[in-house]
Amino acid sequence: MSRLICLLILTGCLCCFSGQAQPTSPRPSASTRRLAKSLQQLIGSFHGQAGIYVRNLRTGQTVAINADTLFPTASTVKIPIQCGLFDKIHQGELSYEQPLTYRDSLHYDDGIVGSLKDGTTIPLSQVVMLMESVSDNTGSLWCQALAGGGKTINQWLDANGFRQTRVNSRTPGREAFQKQNGWGQTTPRELADLLVYIRDGKAVSPDASDEMYRNLGRQYWDHDGLSQLPPSVKAVTKNGAVNQARSEVVLVHAPHGEYVYCVMTKHQQDEKWGRDNEGTTLMRTVGALLWHHFEPNDSWTPPAGYEKWW
Questions:
Q1: What Gene3D superfamilies would the database entry show (predicted)?
Q2: With contact defined as beta carbons under 8 Å apart, do 202 and 83 qualify?
Q3: Which in 23, 30, 64, 273 has the greatest CB count within 10 A?
Q4: Residue 226: which of 152, 171, 172, 280 has the closest Cα?
Q5: Local confidence band at 228 (pLDDT 50, 70, 90 cut-offs)
Q6: CA–CA separation, 46 vs 265, rounded Å?
Q7: Of 265, 286, 261, 278, which is closest to residue 73 (Cα–Cα)?
Q8: Which residues have C-beta within 8 Å of that of residue 126, sequence separation ≥ 6?
């Protein structure tokens, strides 16, 4: 009987450590409750559906509003694509600096990669950089194919405990999901957790995580929530946009403790493109609110006239 009890205890412990560990959030503090109320008020008047997840990585305090609801990834899907690609590199099936030859058959749109001449040689590392920094779509689809396709990337996600995040585009069997959510789908909580997973060196390997994190720290599209942070503060991020959805995940290396957050929208009534889009405005408002919540003594705000650059 004692052996049976020990076996049951051991089995329970092993179960606890299987899959992607979910951090236990402490009882919300008064300031966290105030933050949750403010964020809830922000999305309460939003013309569409919005989800927000925030976690203070120092204290473990979280705010989750529609954080486990599925949303279209838009270009934030390029984070899991990068993970799948680096898994292939880690396995020795690809080399990060190997030369690739661009062919016109790869063309998707007229971004940087899609504007290359047929036969142009470019290192894989530069295609990855363009995928993450300028969100190059042709380069991203190229990387997705090199990673083994959406099915292989989804298998990596599932094996690492990310069971809501999926690549839909060009993935057999996921046509219905693509029709509903586009290139990919995820939840605000899971996308934020994936960024932390990379930050903690757990994605593929510590050295692969390090390089992926560096790539995500070179963001060209910095006019959303990122624009509300002082330029001297390190932040790692990826954002995305399609007609009826906006998404942004950010890990901020704030002076008094790192925090991660994700804002996602869908079914937006406002489909116009520009900085005054309701989803884009929401991301800027959330970015500013969180910065001043976690750094209350910092009086920095974007300088007058900064918006003219966008």
A1: DD-peptidase/beta-lactamase superfamily (3.40.710.10)
A2: no
A3: 64
A4: 280
A5: very high
A6: 9
A7: 265
A8: none
Tell me if 272 is assigned to some domain.
yes
- Residue 21 DSSP label: P
Give the C-alpha separation, 12 to 242, whole Å. 44
Which DSSP string corresponds to 172-211? TT-HHHHHHHTTEEE-HHHHHHHHHHHHTT-SS-HHHHHH
Give CB contacts under 8 A, 24+ apart, made by 154-157: 156/80, 156/83, 156/84, 156/87, 157/80, 157/83, 157/84
Length of the chain: 310
The 3-state DSSP class for residue 94 equals: coil
Q: What is the pTM of this model?
A: 0.91
H-helix or E-strand spanning residue 13? helix 2-16
Q: Minimal CA–CA distance to 234: which of 258, 210, 211? A: 258
**289 belongs to a structural domain:** yes
Domain of residue 154, CATH code: 3.40.710.10
Q: Is residue 118 part of a domain?
A: yes
| Whether 261 contacts 192, CB under 8 Å | yes
Instruction: Name the packing angle between helices 137-146 and 78-90 (round to 10°).
Output: 40
CB 55 within 8 A of CB 161: no
Cβ-proximal residues to 156 (8 Å cutoff; 6+ apart), any chain:
80, 83, 84, 87
Torsion angles phi and psi, residue 141, rounded to 5: -70, -35
Q: What are the DSSP calls for 41-56, one per residue?
A: HHHHT-SSEEEEEEEE
How many separate domains does the chain show?
1
Residue range 134-167, pLDDT digits in tens = 999 999 999 999 999 999 999 999 999 999 999 9
